[in-house]
Amino acid sequence: MDVSVWRGDEHAGEFEHFKVPMQESQTILDVVSWIQQNQDPTLTYRYACRVGMCGSCAMMVNGVPRWTCRTHVKKVLDGDKLEVAPLRNLPVIKDLATDMDPFFDKWVQAEGLHHPSKTRHDAIEPILHDSPGREAASAGIECINCSACYAACDTVAGNPHYLGPAALQRAWTVYNDSKDADKQSVLDAVSGAGGCHNCHTQGSCAVYCPNDLSPMNAIAGLKRASAASFFKRRK
Amino acid sequence: MNKPHRAHHLWYAYMLHRLSGLLLALFLPVHFYVLSLALTQPERLDLMLQWFELPLVKFAEFGLVFLLAVHFFGGLRLMALEWLPWSANQKTLAAGAVAAAFLVSTTFFLRAI
Amino acid sequence: MLGLRLYMLQRLSALIMAPLTLGHLAVMIYAIQGGLTAAEILGRTHGSVLWFLFYGSFVLAVSVHAAIGLRVITSEILKLGESSLDLLTWALALFFLFMGARAVMAVTLL
């Protein structure tokens, strides 16, 4: 099959074409690895667990962000063509490896961290797994920061300050944690110029999340919570 | 570089909402200008109103009403998604909004011709 | 681009316009029957406080809503700075308000 792989860095680059033999059972990661091992050792790419747990191998495959280790060639082959490119919306370091710093910086900016309310000397607080807050939080905690949603989102592309679906989803899980002592700072963090209100509900984040999470719903929750706080503070 | 594959319903709803808003915003000053002719040049307004009887204009009006209805129902859909705690089937809502918009604008068109 | 305040303004102006839009559509569908002339329009609206209030509030709400909407589209395509966007938003809002107020005055002549 014909595989186009993006080569270059943050300044310039282009697609390079390789002919790769098809196997019976083959993932995109297999394809990229084959190219690097057999055709061009200078090809740069990332992977780690190669079993769909770590998210390191996320790339754009035929224009769609995916985990390459979990994407079978047969599912995405366009005739006999494949196109592999680095994740969108992130600066490229080299070839298929992107700089994840902006993604993680925004993760921090969205105040997705726990604000303790007790000390080790207090009794452990029982949390019911089916309380509404816990269910809302649990819906988003399996995010592994692969950045696929960030790459899929057009609002991220259009708005450099936008915190992005993953960071906002994390903020929502913290907000719903009954053990958290400072929900207001979460709301403040997600209500600024890059906050949740920029979301246009395109839904690409939910469509392309490899873990079937829905940052879109989390962001709607943040909008609700911040709107409610808007009215309360006014009164 | 690549742009993600966008052919999913929610993205179409987003783009439709954006385009309809943009086109309406461009149309609005024209609409306001024509109406204000009633103050300054009522004969010219009458002339224009006669011209608006043309089928092509009627069709354009249908388009405008469709855009308004799409934007309106789409906006309600958005606010429902954001503020009501349903976990509704979003695709159905999106489709429903377009259908309702089409219904409203067709009613307008049928009355107009 | 959109903080909490602008977001709320956008949503609130939209909610205000919801009944006004339905009313406008109903009025239009009724009014265009059998053709339309300036005299027909003015005959109904001239001197009417109700129509002035109805369309006046419509113009106010749409000036806010359209200006913010265009702000968002502009910021995502042109990526201007915050102060340029503020200027643009105010300019647009005032433009729509001015044109709309003229139209409302023309039709109700209050």
Q: If you had to describe this structure to a student in words, what would you say it looks like?
A:
The complex is a heterotrimer of chains A (235), B (113) and C (110). With 235 residues, chain A is an alpha+beta fold. Chain A folds into two domains: 2-98, Roll (Ubiquitin-like (UB roll)); 101-234, Fumarate Reductase Iron-sulfur Protein, Chain B, domain 2 (Orthogonal Bundle), CATH 1.10.1060. Chain A has helices spanning 28-39, 73-76, 101-109, 132-138, 148-152, 154-158, 165-175, 183-189, 204-208, 215-234, and strands at 2-8, 13-19, 58-61, 64-67, 81-85, 92-94, 97-98. Chain A has a five-stranded mixed beta sheet. In chain A, strands 6-7 form a two-stranded antiparallel sheet. The radius of gyration of chain A is 20 Å and the shape is elongated. With 113 residues, chain B is an all-alpha fold. Chain B has one domain (9-112): Up-down Bundle (3 helical TM bundles of succinate and fumarate reductases), CATH 1.20.1300. In chain B, helix 1 (9-40) crosses helix 2, helix 1 (9-40) crosses helix 3 (55-83) and helix 3 (55-83) packs antiparallel against helix 4 (90-112). The model of chain B has no long low-confidence stretch (mean pLDDT 80). In chain C, 85% of the residues lie in helices and 0% in strands. Chain C contains four helices and no strands. The longest helix of chain C has 30 residues, at 49-78. The radius of gyration of chain C is 16 Å and the shape is elongated. The model of chain C has no long low-confidence stretch (mean pLDDT 87). Chains in contact: A-B, A-C, B-C. Chain B binds chain C through residues 18, 21-22, 24-25, 28-29, 31-33, 35-40, 42, 45-46, 49, 52-53, 65, 68-69, 72, 75-76, 79, 104, 107-108, 111-112, and chain C through 11, 14-15, 18, 21, 25, 28-29, 32-33, 35-39, 41-42, 62, 66, 69-70, 73, 95-96, 99-100, 102-103, 105-107, 109.
